[in-house]
Every structure is written in C-alpha cells, then in structure tokens.
From TrEMBL, chain B:
The chain crosses the membrane at residues 21-50, 62-81, 93-113, 125-142, 149-169, 189-209, 221-242, 280-309, 329-347, 354-373, 491-517. CDD domains: TM_PBP2 (cd06261). Belongs to the binding-protein-dependent transport system permease family. CysTW subfamily. This is Phosphate transport system permease protein PstA. The gene is pstA. It comes from the Archaea. Its main location: membrane. Gene3D superfamilies: MetI-like. The lineage of its organism: Archaea, Methanobacteriati, Methanobacteriota, Stenosarchaea group, Halobacteria. InterPro entries: MetI-like, MetI-like_sf, Phosphate_PstA. GO terms for cellular component: plasma membrane. It is a multi-pass membrane protein.
From TrEMBL, chains C, E:
InterPro entries: AAA+_ATPase, ABC_transporter-like_ATP-bd, ABC_transporter-like_CS, P-loop_NTPase, PstB-like. This is Phosphate ABC transporter ATP-binding protein PstB. PROSITE patterns: ABC_TRANSPORTER_1, ABC_TRANSPORTER_2. One of its GO terms (molecular function) is ATP binding.
From TrEMBL, chain D:
Its main location: membrane. It is a multi-pass membrane protein. Coiled coil: none annotated. It is found in: Cell membrane. It comes from Haloarchaeobius amylolyticus. This is Phosphate transport system permease protein. GO terms for cellular component: plasma membrane. InterPro entries: MetI-like, MetI-like_sf, Phosphate_PstC, Phosphate_Transport_Permease. It holds the Pfam family BPD_transp_1. Residues 127-339 form the ABC transmembrane type-1 domain. The chain crosses the membrane at residues 47-64, 71-93, 126-151, 171-191, 197-215, 320-342. NCBIfam families: phosphate_pstC. PROSITE patterns: ABC_TM1. Keywords: Cell membrane, Membrane, Phosphate transport, Transmembrane, Transmembrane helix, Transport.
C-alpha cells in the first residue's frame, strides 16, 4: 500500500476538487473516456476547430505527447474526475492522491496563512473564467430588481441591509432578505469574500450556507426573497442573475466578460511541481478552442481570451509530436 | 353471608344495551372528523383552494359547518346522557388527564390571544390564561364524566366554528408570533384547526359510543392509538407513492424487453456517458452491491462468531457485559461518526485515498452490532432441550453448535442480516467521507477483474477496491447537492426510486423470511 | 335437574357467540353425538352455571365437544382429566377469558344464573366481576399487597383515594383498608402480611402469592371463583392451606377447580367432572360416587390409575 | 465392547498436545497482535502477520477444531469491543488539538462561534441545534412510537398486526437521504410558502423528519418490552374485570416501564445521530436561532456540521469537526448505557421475568 | 447387596467431583444423618449403578441428601415423589448432565459397573454414550427422522456419508439405513414412519416424537436409559405405547424412569424408589412392596394419597 506517488492509479489521470470546475472537467473527462471518432460531428469533429486529424478524440490529444492509440477504441489512458471542493482538491494534490486539483479560487486565497515558498509547488493552469453572478429569487427580480450595486451587496452580506425595500432598484413590498452563502472553505465562498468584501477571511452574515452550488440554486428557486452567489453554470430561470452596478457601470451578462468585472474569478486546474505529459495532454485539450467551446461554454462559463489562452498554453510542456 | 352483605354496590346487569340514539349521536362526529381530515389535508396539500368552492360551497363554509355539526352532536350527546335519556355508565369525573388537557388548551388559547392580540407583554398574559385554564380544568374535574368529556370538546368545536363564522379567522387572516419569523396564514390555520377540533370531538364521541366509563375510556384510547397507527401507515404509503410517482417513469424510460433474452433498462444498466447520451446509475448500483458484499463478508462471521461465543461459551460476567455495552454502543453510534472514524483510521492506511475497501470496512463495522444482536437473540431462542439432547448423546459442545444450534438459529440470523443490509445500503454519510469520489462514472468498479499479484507486499492488490466509487445514496446526494446532471430533477427522483427499491426489497425479503420461518415453526 | 342431553334438541339459538361462522353444525358435517356414559346428575336448588352443548375450537382443532352440565351453587366442583383434555379450556369458557385467545372459537350456550353469557352486548367487565378466576401460577401485579387487592374495586370505581378524591369528598381510604383486611382474612393471609401491606407483592412466597391472588379475586365480590390448578406450583404445606381455603370459600361462593391430582379432587370437592382426551365430559357426579363407583368404564379406568 | 470411561491412558499424548497447543496459541496471538500493531503504524507490513495468523489458524483448525473455533469466536467477540475502542481512540486523538485550542469555549461561548479567519471553533450552536432538534424529534417519536408499540402488541387484531408491524419496520428502512431529499425539495419550499418563513430550512422540519425516523426504533424496542410482560399477569387484571385499556395502562405499561423508557432513550440516540436529513434540510449556519427556542429558525446540528463542512476543512477546522464527532459519540454512548442500566435494573428487580 | 447406609462411613474420598469446594462436610456444619425408614433392598446380580452418599447442591440449597442405593441391571427402576423432591436431579447425576448446570455441585460417589463416574479424567462422551437419556418433553432435532437417529453415531465417527466419505470409500449409507431401521423397530416406531424417514421429525405427533427420542438414544448403543417423565406430555394412548416400550427395553437395557404418576410406576417398574421433599430417598424396594406394604409411614401416606 503506502504512498502511491503518482496519481491514485497507474495509467489513468485523476482529478478532484472544486464543484465549480467540475462541470468542465467532468464533461472533458467523460468525452475523453468515450474517445469519440473523428467523424462525430457533435462532440469531436476536429475539422471544425482547425485541427487536422482523423484520430479519435483522446488518441489525438494524448498522441500530441506521444501516447500510443489503442486498437480497441479506448483512450490511451483513462481519466477519472472526482467531485468535491477546492480545499479537498488542493489537499489531495499536495498529498499525491490526484494528478490535477480543480480549484475555483487561487491557492493563495485558499491557504492564506502559507508562505510563497510553501505554495510554490502548486502549478496553476487557468482553464476558464467564472464571472461570479449575483443571483436572486425569481420573485425578487419580478419586483423590479434587475440590478444591484456592489455596496448594496456588501451591505446585505455584512448584515446592514435586511429588507429588500432598502435596495434601490427593488419596488416590491417589504420583504426580508434571505442571504445565502456557500460553505466556508469552498472556493466559491473564498473568492466571493475576496472579491466583494475585500478579504478571503472577511466576516459575513448569512441565513444559510449550502454545501454545493446546486443547493444554492435549488434554494433560490424555492424562495421568494433570496440572494446568493454561485457560479455562472448555476443560473436558471427560477434563479436568475441580476446586473451588478459598480461605480455607475452596470455589468450585464455580456459585459461580465470584461476583465474589470470585480467578481470575475479564474477557474484553475492545479498540478503538482511540474506538469506531466498526461496532465498536459488533458489540460491542452481544455485550453484549445475546441475545449473552450465544448466544455467551457456549454457550462455557461466564460472562455479565456486568446491572449490568456496563449499564456496558459505556454506553461505546458511542448507537444512531442 | 354476613361479611358479604357489607357490599356497597348492587350488581349491575350482565348485559349492556346501547340505545340507537346514543350510537347515532356518537357516530356522527367520527364521520365528520374523517371528512374534515380528508378535506383539510387536501387543502393543506394545495389540492383544494379557498378560491374554488367544493360542491358549490365555499371551503370555509364547509369547515365551519363541519365544526358546528360536530360540536352540536357532542353537546346533544352529553345532554342526553346527563338527563338519562340514553343509558350510559359514566364515572364521577373525567379524570385529571382530560381536565388538564382541556385546561392546557384553554390556557394556551387565552395566553396567545392576550399576548399577541391584546399585546400583554412580559408575563402579564399568564394571569388571565392561568385563571381560565384552571377554571376549565376545575369544572371538568368536578363534572360527571359524560359532561366532562362532551361539553368541552363540543364547545371547542363550536368556538372554532364561531371564529370562522364571524370571520375572526378567515383565509386571509395572518398571525405572526413576535420574534419567530413565522407567519400562520388563515389558509393553513383554518383547515388545521378544523382537523384538530373535529379530532378531539371524534375522541369524545368514541368515549360516548361505549357509554363512557371504563369502556368509554377504552374506546377513546383505542381511537387515538388506532388513528396513530393509521397515520403511520398513511405516511409510509405517501412517502413511497410520492417517490414512485416522481421517479418511476424517469427510471424506466427507454426500457426494452425482448425479443428473446434481450433486456435493456438504460437507467439501471448504463453508466454515465456524455458521448453516448447515457445517464444511468449502473456504477452506483454496483458500488452499493460491493459495499454490501464487503460489509457482509466482514461483519457476518465476526458477528455470528461473537454471538455464539457470548451465548454458548462465555460465562455471564464482566467480560460479557463489557461486550454488551460495546455492542449496544456501536449500534447507536451515529453513522457520520463512523465516517469520521473511517477517515482517520482506514483511509490513511488503505492507500491514503477514499476507497471502496474503506467503505466496506466502515459499513461492516456498522453492520456488526446488528448482526451480533440479532444472532444472539436467535441463538438464545434455540431451546435448551436441543443442547441437552445432544449432550446426552455424548456429543461435544462444538459439534452441537455446528450441527444443531446454528442451523436452528439460522432463520433468525438470516433475517437479521438481511434487514441489517437494508439499513447499511441506505447509509450516506460514511460513504461520503470514506468512499465517494466521482458520481458520474461510465464504468462500474470491476472488483473481480482487478485482482493482481505482486512480488512485493501485500502480494495481492485490487485497484478497484482501493479506488473510490459511487453508491446509490451518494448518487442521490450528488443529485441533490451538485446537480450532477444539470437541470434534470427527474434524475434525482429516479435515483431515489431505485435506492428505495433496493433498500426496501431487503426489508421486504427480510420480513417475509421471518414470517415464513415463523409460520413453518408454528405449523 | 336433568342432563339436557336427553331432552329434544332445540333449534339453533340466536344467542350464540357472534364471531365468524356461528352457524350450527350443518347436516353435512354433523358429528356423531357422544352418548353419555352416565345417568344425569341431580341436585337440589338452582344451577349456578348451565352449560349446554358447548364446543370450543382452537383454529381448526376442536378442544371441547358438546359439553352439557349444570354446576350447583355454593359448592366445590372439581374438574379432572388427563393433560390436554380441555379442563382449562372449559374453565376459561365460564368467564369468557377465551375471548383473549385469538384463535379460540366458542359455540354453544353457557348460562350464568339463567342469563346467557355468549350473547351480544354482554358486559364482560360485569361478567368477570361475578366470575372470578385464580390461575395456575400465582400472578400478583408488581404492586404493593394493598394495591393488588384494591386494584379491581378501584378500576370499577368503587374505591377512590388520593388528592382529587379527597377534594371531592369521595375519598375512601378507610373503606379500602376494611376491604383489604376483609379479603386477606377470607384468604387466610391476613396474619402473615398485616404488617407489610405496602410491600411489593412479588416479595411473598409462592403460596402467599397464590392466596393473595385469591384475595384479589374476592375483593371484586364475585359469585363464582374459578381456579385452574391453583396449587400445582406450590409445596405440600402451601397446598394444604389452599385446600382448606377452598373448602372455606365454598360456604359463600361457587368454586370450580381444575386439578390434575385425583387425591386433591377427592379431598376437596363436592362433585367431580371427569374430562377425557378429545375434550369430552365423560362423567359428572358426586365426588364420592365418581371415585368409588363410577358408571363409566373409562372413568373407572382413569381413577383407578389404569392410565394417566 | 465399550471403551473405558477413563482417558487416563492417553495422558502422555495429551501433554504433548497441550504443549503444542499453547505454542499455537502463542503464535496466533503474536501474529494477530502484530497485524493490528503494524496496521496502525506500518500498514504495508501487516500482510506478513496476517499470513502467519491464517497459517496458524488453518493448522489449528485441522488439528483442534473445537478449540480453534472457540478461540476464533473469542477473537470475534473481542474485536467487536475493539472496534469501539478504536473509534474512541481515533476520534479523541484527532480532536485533541481542537479541544486544546478552544478549551471550554468549544462547548459554550457567547458570540463569535465559528471563524476560520480567527481560528475560533465553538460547537455551541451545533450542540444547541442538536438539542433542539432532538427535543422536537422526541416529542414526535416518543408518544407516537409508544402508541404504535401498544397498538402492535396489545390492541391490533391479527390482520392489522400483519400490516402495521412490517410497515413500522419498513419505515425504519427508508434511507435518511431520501427523507432529506423530500425535505429539501418539497417540505422546505412548502414551509416557505405556507408559513412565511424568511429563510429556507428550519429546525421544526428537521425535528419532525428526524422524529419520524426515530419512531420505528422507539416502536420496536418498546414493543419488545411490552410484549415481554407475561400474559398471565395481564390475564390477572382482565379476570377481575379490568378493561383491556385499564390493563394496558395500569399493569402492562408499568410492568414494562423501564423497557419503554429505554426505547425512548434509544430513539433519542437515533435522533441525535441522524445526519443526512439534517444536512440537506438545514441552513447549516454556525449561529443560534433567535430567540433561542425559535424552532422556525435556522441553525446547524453536530451531525450536519460534520457532513456539510467536512469537504472544505483542513487543519484545526477539521479537528474541530472531530471534536463534534466526539461530543456526538459521548452523548449517544451515555444514552445507550443509561438505557442498558435501566433494562438491567428491571431484570434484577423483577427476577428476570420481564 | 445391602443398603450401605449401615456400613461404617468411609473417609473423604479423593475422587469426588473436582469443582470448587469439594471438601467433605466438615464437623461444624455436620448434618444429622437421615435414619433409613426401611430395611435394605436386596437383589441378585451386580448392580448397574451404585450410588453412595450422594449430595447435590444448587448454589447453597441442597437438593439431594445422602442418597445411597444400588440399581439392578436389566430392569425398570421407577423414581417417584412429590414435585421438587429431586427426582430429576438424581437422574441427571447418573450421566453427569448436572455438569451443565452452573450452580450445581455434586458430592458423593456414583459407580457405573464399578467405575466411579465422579473422578478426574472421566470421558463424558463415553459416559453419556453408555448412559442414554430421554427427556420429559420430546425434543427431536429439527432435522429429518433419519438424521435424528444417525446424529449420535455420526458425531462419534461411527457413520460417515456424503461426497467426501464416498470419495474416501468410507461411506456407510447402508449401515446407516440398517441402524435407523433397527432403532426405529426397537422403539416401536418403524411401522409408522418407515415411508417418511426423510421428513422433518417435528412433523410427528408428540408420542411419535418421544419414541423417536428413544430410538435416537438407542442408536448410540447405551447400557442404561434414563427417562425423566417420558410420558407426561403425552395422551393416554401414546403413554400406553411408551409404557409397553419401556417394559420391552428392560429386557436388554437398564431403565431408570422418573414419573409423577404412581399408577404408572406401579404398572411398569420392577422396583421403585420414593423420594420425598427435601431430597431424601425414603424407601427403595420392589414395586409391589412399595405400593402394597411400604415400611415407611411417610411412603404409605404418600402412595395412598394422603398428600401430593
Ligand atoms: N391457545 C391455544 N391455542 C391452540 N390450542 C390450544 C390452546 N390452548 C389449549 N389448546 C389445546 O386445546 C386442548 C385442551 O387444552 P387445555 O389447556 O384446555 O387442556 P387441560 O386439560 O387444561 O390440560 P392441562 O392439564 O395440561 O392443563 C389441548 O389439545 C391444547 O393443545
Ligand atoms: N437448575 C436449578 N437451579 C437451582 N435449583 C434447582 C435447579 N433445578 C432444580 N432445582 C431445585 O432442586 C430441587 C429438586 O428439583 P428437581 O427438578 O430435581 O425435582 P423433581 O423431583 O424432578 O420435581 P418435578 O416433579 O417437579 O420435576 C427443587 O427444589 C428445585 O427447585
Ligand atoms: Mg390446563
Ligand atoms: Mg423433574
Ligand atoms: O466547490 P467550490 O468550487 O466552491 O470549492
């Protein structure tokens, strides 16, 4: 038994961690394992992405780093993607239990009391951007709340605003604000505090804390007075987002992609010490426009700009063929 | 004969005859309660609304009418009994229990009105409340039983009905007790109060039905206890029906049977695969299967062995009582504590990762006390005659245990194990902590195919056992908390349906096994 | 009084027990009537119980077959017979304790003082107050001796004590004390326990417990006392006390006692009924006659020890 | 024809046998102890000891089946107790830092209960929440459970008995996550809509759901207790004209009182330890409800604290969760032991009859 | 052979049972020796059992006091006496079944064919094979009739069947069949069950079950058969069959039978031992003598029904 040094199982690539990043990596992993052929238009179809290949999906991406294709149609190596939280992902990565630690907050915010050098071995790969939305219950939106200022959000989460009538854009009846947060220690919570309240350890007052983003969404859907933050992937009809107004600028869904949007956060795939060829093959797939279109956009996250993509790609080892 | 003439009571008639009047009067409130229960529950569940009339009557009118009818019937019953129009056998008093019950109702009602409606703060509301409460209790105590039972319950119904009639409480009424952050709406309160008041009335009527006295109190008590049993049945049926209704069609979607041996049940037999468009939970089912197998393999030999040792070999003493305390302690240890323990003890020692094996062991530990306790009972209940008979034939203890004791205890042991399995198969918390990793798997853990021999210790490894796995309860947890399949609520219900199907099958099989063996033994 | 067996069969009476299948035995499954092996038992005065054509079934099995007999008042009637012949079953028919056995079904008629006890609307409480019962093994409640005795009267509302009763002025502590004393004296237990009436009854010896059970039964003022092998769990000395007590009780009460000891039956009873396997009543007559000169050959065999 | 009654002539062989047997026992004990020890400190070595143990046992089985079997069964018995010891040990060891860091504040403190930033981990709100939900659950489970027990063992006609008893048992089989699922998706929303709650999740819902889950425990343990009151004791009451209900009330229940109260205690234990339903239904905030007894408010229980924060914790935070486990464990053990003491006392007092 | 009571007391023997406190009754607590009320019982031939000065205690309570008697071979010895007098206890001393009762302690000597059975190193298996036992209520194992009978021999390695045995060539299915047939015939059960040997034994009637238990006991080929009220749970017809069987068995075996029915003792036994409360053996003699002309007054009272 003892310490498995590389990954939980030989041969396969394992990732675990953030539930926010999970929709991306999980879809990527699932398709990787299915290894669709090149003529599959829906999920692979390399030609659509200016990729010149007739290989199956995983065969192609793994092939870039010299992994041999299988005759059986199976990928050169399998992937397994765990669902957990940022903290768990990073910890498992550190303990050598997984190859990739998914994180929805930077490692520095997740482990605020660690020194630079302690954080050094975490190699950061940003794979997408989540412009963390402010979401409210449908009923609140219906009562006119289509935008909210950053100060109001801060007031709500610091316990200064407790009734919706205190929010300017709201013109419905008096109603208590139900403040919903994510569990402490989750990446989503950490980045929200970091971005909105200015400190990953800032105090906040909430009415309930949900373990996962999906629970936040369900709670919004069931309530008529709630406000919450989650990931873009979890916005729904009954749990709509509202525009955030910062210094007079109203950030709509479209404008959230702009780098100035203060709640924007990067979604990370950390690797340990180096990036192995296996890890690189998988991350390269996600970083490629193919991956951004196939995995990031359907999950409602924002793809990286070309510039940032190039920068992230440059951190990966060069493909061997 | 002299001593017997001291007797203070003449003999009563050997037969009792209840007049049809009494029977008629007392059956009505019970029927009214049933109607109120059905209509009220339907209203609470939102199937009936106050906007839409029922048989041309406003819902509020229906409730008011029910209450007045019930109250009137009860008062009439009380009067008829008191005036001896009908033959009853009431006691001198309804007793302290009834008196304090109604006293408490009066106390709370006055207290609430005083504090919430008239805003009497502090404890000033307590004074009028106590006075009225004591008055009500006292007068019930000193009234004859027939009055003490019917009048307060009848008045209670009439009072509530009056509140409805004069629109003191109507569907638009609201009540927010200060500081609780809760609002009682008339839409909920009206049906709720109707059910409660008619229920009290039905209890009183059950009392009257048997002519009060000891027989009446028995009828009242049996009515309460019987209603409780019926409600529990109702809850069970509703729970199951609800899950089935929401999950069944999703779960059986795309099921194909035939031709020939072809059988495909996508939700149950497929894994999760984006590319193939499969959204099945096969890996979770297999995960649960292996968890159960592992737990059984671990717990059954230890549990049965310990049970045999404790019953057949150990002297009753300090050692056995320590083991008993430990067993009962294990039985009541919360599952999440088992999870933490597994995380601290097993995970670091089994590849430092969440794993199927860790889950098996933790669930095995949870199953252990169940197996031990039930096996012990079963072995204890093997008649000593068998053991004596065997000993008298010169057969040793161990042979007796193997050949006679354990086979005779087998039905009990098997039943215990099956029901124990049902229980652990539904456990979520420990799995969450020591086994779970990816809820969306394509392939089930291939435990059998993963054994490998190595040259270094431990010489035999099984990758599947040492990796994480999904399991049905975890799958359901995943569906609730992380929306693993996006906006697809049916997926969660279908998972719940399959989980329930698996767990309850174990229970049903266990219970039927026991019934079968009981019948066989008694035949 | 005559053995009714010889009278013409009456049509099915409507006052049979009203459980399922009350139907009179139909022609199809008509059973052979057991021919009595003895002439009627005659006695003076009214019968306390008149049992007629009583059949009892446990599920499908018949435990008693067409029992017809009349039990005279203020005397001791012994029921004897081999194990399993239905003595206990018969006894439990007389106060309808068989109602508590789910599988038991009773057909036929039992009259207490001329009133049918297997009819609708019978007041079981009243019946059991009149027909008391003492069981094979002593079964006092785990309460004080006093409470054991006052239990019945209290449940029947004849005694009230405690704060509430005192408030209402219906307190009957004194009467309770009198009652306890009277019953214990009648049961020949007073001397032994008068100084510890508030001790738990389970602390008494077996024989004392059994007498306490008799006292408890007397406290509700029954007419009849049924006893099912009341001395079988006791040692000879305790047995002797119980036997004396039974003879004493017969002065005021009708006592019906099951015993498996023929000697005991001979010692204590005025008349004896002999049941034999299969649940038939084979002979019922004066005890002396039964033991010295029975009419039935089978009874003769039984009492002389040819079997059993 | 028949053998001699004595075994004297075999005594020499016996002696050799005895020596071999002690040796076997020694080796088996050593290898087993070794397995355990290595599993604790160096798990990769465990396999050698396990092999040794299996070899000894295998040999023993062939040579002295009875004594080997007895030894193995003794081991099984000991290991049952050992599991509990291990649980205690690991829970306590992992939680010590949290207890050390927080001192008594971990049990009770005013305000500022839980903050990762300040490394404050007081379990007070969770303890309070557990207490409150448990009280509610007991209010539901105890009377209804006892009533069901009475119904099943004393009142039900055979057909109803055949339905209600298995139904109550089946109720015990519904997994807690299913209750949680229904609570989370249906009841929470219903309470929001119909009781004007200002936030999702409330103690009262958890209390009632958990009570429903503890009900079968109460019912089946109490039923055993009630059914163990001997029939002849009840017959005694019925035969002097008490009604069935009077008999139940004044003879059966008092005689089985301790068993029934043990049933309630065990039910309370179940309620205290119930996890998943609380986790998904409650808001899980480390705050006290306001006012303290506001059952419509939101808080966290010890169990839901562990299950909801477990995944996001490390360091002292995680140790604090172990501390929550310790408190849970101690509570439940105390309840269980009390229940057993009560039951033992009855057995002693009533001479083993009940 | 003479009643040893009259012989001088031997010093404490070392071969008493080796449980705790084996010490001989010390002078301090020396009990009065019970004076025999009858003269010695003499018979020809060797005794099967010689019991000498046997005391049995349950905890602190003494259940048997200084029993001394010799049981002749190939005959039926009946043990009678009131309930609780220690008959069962005595019987269970003879095959050391009392070892199974934790609180029981035996002092004194019991010799089987001249060999002391209360000595260290006694082979209990062998003893119980030689001294078979049949219990009060029939207790067949919940197995087939065949398996019930072959159970003993199988466990003693005298029969082997099944695949393994067949592979090894030691299969003894035939011998098993013969054994089953022989025992069932001896127990007068063959006719009734020969066509359903593989049915579960619990399906038999009580009397058949009891005979099956006897057959099961015969299968291990005992010398002595102890029976503790073997017919008390049976109806008269089954009882009669068992009684016939006992008389039959006495031709080949030594049968010792406890009964609470004096009639039964009179019918079946050659000699009778009367125990009375307190655990004393009051008289042991030919059955006829005991019932017609006992020497002890207490026995006379007992057998004529003055008490019990
Ligand atoms: N509760 C019962 N259910 C089914 N059968 C019963 C029940 N009670 C008694 N029987 C059967 O009815 C028959 C008569 O039983 P009963 O107890 O009346 O006999 P008894 O004469 O009192 O015998 P004993 O002397 O052993 O007490 C027996 O065959 C018995 O097995
Ligand atoms: N296992 C035991 N533990 C304690 N005392 C016992 C035990 N067995 C019997 N006794 C007591 O020993 C005495 C003799 O009992 P035993 O069973 O030998 O009597 P018995 O003559 O067989 O009576 P019965 O006719 O009722 O079967 C009795 O006082 C009994 O209470
Ligand atoms: Mg009887
Ligand atoms: Mg006996
Ligand atoms: O699950 P998280 O992404 O919030 O850590």
């Amino acid at each position: 038994l003892g310490n498995a040094s590389e990954g939980s199982s030989e041969g396969s690539l394992s990732a675990d961690g953030s539930s926010t990043v999970y929709p991306i990596t999980s879809k990527a992993g699932s398709l990787w394992n299915s290894n669709p052929p090149a003529d599959d238009e829906e999920y692979w179809g390399p030609g659509q992405y200016d990729i010149d290949s007739d290989e199956n999906l995983a065969d192609y991406w793994a092939g870039l780093y010299g992994f041999e294709a299988n005759d059986s149609g199976k990928p050169p190596f399998e992937t397994s993607i765990g669902l957990n939280h940022t903290g768990v992902g990073l910890q498992k990565l550190e303990e050598g239990q997984v190859d990739i630690g998914d994180a929805s907050a930077p490692v520095s915010a997740e482990f605020p009391d660690r020194s630079e050098s302690e954080l050094e071995p975490f190699v950061d790969h940003v794979v997408a951007v989540d412009a963390q939305p402010i979401m409210v219950s449908k009923a609140v939106q219906d009562d006119g709340l289509d935008k909210i200022t950053l100060e109001e959000v801060q007031g709500i989460y610091q316990g200064e605003i407790s009734d919706w009538t205190e929010v300017e854009a709201y013109d419905g009846p008096s109603k208590e604000v139900q403040v919903i947060g994510r569990a402490e220690g989750s990446g989503t919570d950490t980045s929200f505090r970091n971005n909105v309240l200015g400190d990953p350890d800032a105090e906040m007052e909430v009415d309930s804390r949900k373990g996962e983003n999906q629970q936040v969404q369900t709670t919004l859907e069931q309530s008529d007075n709630a406000i919450a933050y989650a990931g873009l992937a979890f916005v729904s009809d009954q749990a709509p987002m509202v525009n955030l107004v910062i210094d007079g600028t109203e950030y709509t869904r479209e404008k959230m992609a702009e780098p100035e949007y203060p709640l924007a956060r990067d979604l990370h795939c950390y690797t340990w010490e180096d990036t192995s060829e296996k890890e690189a093959a998988f991350i390269r797939m996600i970083l490629h426009p193919y991956g951004q279109q196939q995995f990031v956009e359907p999950a409602d996250y924002l793809p990286l700009t070309d510039e940032r993509r190039e920068e992230e790609l440059s951190k990966l080892p060069e493909p061997s063929n | 004969m002299s001593e017997r003439s001291l007797q203070y009571q003449s003999q009563n008639a050997l037969t009792v005859e209840h007049s049809p009047t009494l029977t008629g009067l007392s059956v009505v409130p019970i029927g009214l309660f049933l109607v109120a229960f059905v209509v009220g529950s339907a209203t609470l569940a939102g199937w009936l609304g106050f906007e839409s009339p029922l048989f041309g009557l406003a819902l509020e009118t229906v409730f008011t009418a029910l209450l007045f009818a019930s109250g009137a019937c009860l008062l009439a019953t009380g009067a008829a009994s008191r005036l001896e129009i009908v033959d009853t056998t009431p006691d001198r008093s309804a007793g302290v229990g009834v008196a304090s019950g109604f006293g408490f109702v009066a106390f709370s009602a006055i207290g609430l009105t005083a504090s919430q409606t008239f805003g009497l703060g502090g404890v000033r509301w307590a004074l009028p409340a106590s006075v009225v409460g004591v008055l009500v209790a006292g007068s019930i105590l000193f009234a004859r039983e027939d009055f003490g039972v019917t009048v307060p319950s009848g008045l209670f119904s009439l009072l509530i009905g009056g509140l409805f009639l004069f629109d003191v409480i109507d569907p638009s009424w609201t009540f927010s007790p200060a500081g609780f952050g809760v609002t009682f709406f008339g839409t909920v309160f009206v049906p709720l109060l109707t059910i409660v008041a008619t229920f009290v009335g039905a209890w009183a009527a059950a009392n009257a039905f048997q002519g009060f006295g000891a027989a009446g109190r028995q009828a009242g008590a049996f009515f309460l206890i019987g209603t409780n049993a019926a409600l529990i049945l109702l809850v069970l049926v509703l729970l199951i029906a609800f899950i089935v209704k929401n999950g069944f069609w999703y779960a059986v979607d795309g099921m194909e049977i035939g031709p020939g041996l072809h059988f495909h049940w996508p939700f149950v037999m497929d894994g999760y695969d984006v590319f193939l468009g499969q959204k099945g939970i096969f890996p979770a089912i297999v995960g649960t299967f292996w968890l159960v197998v592992g737990a059984v393999v671990l717990a059954v030999p230890i549990g049965v062995g310990a049970a045999v040792f404790l019953t057949e070999y150990a002297e009753q003493g300090r050692f056995t009582s320590v083991v008993e305390v430990a067993t009962n302690g294990l039985w009541s240890t919360p599952s999440v504590v088992f999870g933490l323990f597994g995380y601290a003890f097993l995970v670091p020692r089994l590849g430092n990762n969440t794993s199927l094996l860790a889950g098996m062991i933790v669930l095995g530990f949870m199953l252990l006390p169940l197996v031990l306790i039930t096996s012990r009972e079963a072995i204890k209940s093997v008649p000593d005659e068998y053991r004596d008979a065997s000993a008298a034939l010169g057969v040793s203890k161990w042979e007796t245990i193997k050949e006679v004791t354990i086979p005779s205890a087998m039905p009990g042991i098997v039943t215990g194990v099956i029901i124990g399995i049902g229980r652990i198969a539904g456990e979520t918390a420990p799995i969450l902590i020591v086994t779970a990793d990816n809820p969306q798997r394509k392939f089930a853990p291939a435990v059998l195919g993963s054994f490998e021999f190595t040259a270094t210790p431990p010489f035999i490894v099984n990758d599947a056992l040492l990796s994480g796995s999904s399991a049905l309860p975890y799958q359901l947890y995943g569906a609730i908390t992380t929306g693993v399949v996006g906006d697809d609520p049916g997926y969660g219900w279908a998972t719940a349906f399959v989980l329930l199907l698996v767990v309850l099958s174990f229970y049903v099989i266990g219970i039927m096994t026991r019934m079968y063996f009981r019948k066989k033994l008694h035949a | 009084m005559s053995n009714r067996m010889n009278e013409p069969q009456e049509p099915a009476e409507s006052n049979r027990q009203s459980t399922d299948s009350v139907t009179q035995t139909t022609a199809g499954e008509s059973q052979e009537k057991i021919q009595p092996e003895w002439t009627e038992y005659e006695f003076q005065g009214d019968p306390k119980f008149s049992v007629e054509d009583l059949d009892v079934y446990y599920g499908d099995e018949q435990a008693l077959q067409g029992i017809t007999m009349e039990v005279p008042e203020n005397s001791v009637t012994a029921l004897i017979g081999p194990s399993g012949c239905g003595k206990s079953t018969f006894l439990r028919c007389l106060n309808r304790m068989n109602d508590r056995i789910k599988s038991a079904r009773v057909e036929g008629s039992v009259e207490l003082d001329g009133e049918e006890i297997y009819q609708d609307g019978i007041n079981l409480v009243e019946l059991r107050k009149r027909v008391g019962m003492v069981f094979q093994s002593p079964n006092p409640f785990p309460k004080s001796i006093r409470d054991n005795i006052s239990y019945g009267p209290r449940k029947h509302g004849e005694l009230e004590t405690g704060l509430l009763a005192r408030l209402r002025g219906t307190d009957s502590t004194d009467r309770e004390q009198q009652l306890v004393e009277r019953c214990l004296k009648q049961a020949a237990l007073w001397e032994e326990v008068s100084d510890r009436l508030d001790d738990n009854a389970l602390g008494l010896s077996g024989g004392q417990q059994q007498r306490l059970c008799i006292a408890r039964c007397l406290a509700v003022d029954p007419d009849v006392i049924l006893m099912d092998e009341p001395a079988s769990a006791l040692d000879p000395i305790a047995t002797a006390k119980i036997e004396d007590l039974i003879e004493e009780l017969a002065k005021e009460y009708t006592v019906i006692v099951v015993t498996h000891s023929m000697q005991q039956a001979a010692r204590i009873s005025d008349q004896t009924a002999v049941f034999l396997t299969g649940g038939e009543l084979v002979e019922f007559d004066d005890t002396d006659k039964i033991f010295e000169n029975p009419e039935s050959q089978r009874v003769e065999d039984y009492v002389t020890g040819k079997f059993g | 024809m028949s053998n001699t009654l004595q075994r004297g002539d075999q005594s020499e062989i016996d002696e050799g046998d005895d020596r071999r047997e002690s040796l076997l026992r020694l080796v088996a004990g050593a290898s087993l102890g070794g397995s355990l020890l290595t599993f604790l400190v160096a798990p990769w070595l465990t396999v050698f000891f396990v092999i040794a143990f299996l070899a000894v046992v295998g040999y023993g089985w062939l040579a002295y089946q009875e004594r080997t079997a007895k030894g193995l069964m003794f081991l099984a018995t000991v290991s049952t107790a050992l599991v509990l010891v291990l649980i205690i040990a690991f829970l306590f060891i992992r939680s010590l830092p949290a207890f050390g860091h927080m001192g008594l504040d971990i049990l009770y403190t005013d305000g500022d209960f839980w903050s990762r930033a300040n490394d404050r981990y007081s379990l007070y709100p969770a303890i309070w929440g557990t207490g409150l939900t448990t009280i509610l659950a007991t209010i539901v489970a105890a009377p209804l459970g006892i009533a069901s027990a009475i119904f099943i063992s004393e009142i039900a006609p055979p057909w109803a008995h055949e339905i209600v008893k298995p139904a109550v048992e089946t109720l015990a089989g519904i997994p807690s996550i299913v209750y949680g699922f229904i609570g989370f998706t249906i009841i929470n929303g219903y309470m929001m809509d119909n009781f004007g709650l200002s936030s999702i999740g409330s103690i009262v819902v958890v209390g009632v759901v958990v009570g429903l889950m503890a009900l079968p425990t109460v019912a089946s343990v109490a039923e055993d207790a009630i059914a163990s009151v001997p029939d002849h004791m009840k017959d005694g009451a019925v035969a002097i004209g008490a009604t069935e209900w009077q008999t139940i009330k004044t003879v059966t229940i008092p005689a089985s009182f301790s068993g029934v109260s043990a049933a309630v205690l065990l039910g309370v234990g179940r309620a205290v330890g119930e996890t998943m339903a609380a986790t998904v239904i409650l808001g899980n905030i480390m705050e006290l409800p306001e006012p303290l007894y506001n059952v419509f408010g939101n808080t966290v229980t010890l169990t839901s604290l562990i299950a909801s924060q477990y995944g996001n914790s490390h360091g002292l935070h995680r140790e604090a969760l172990f501390a929550a486990g310790v408190i849970l464990f101690i509570t439940v053990m105390a309840l269980s032991v009390t229940a057993q003491i009560i039951e033992a006392r009855v057995k002693r007092n009533l001479g083993g009859d009940l």
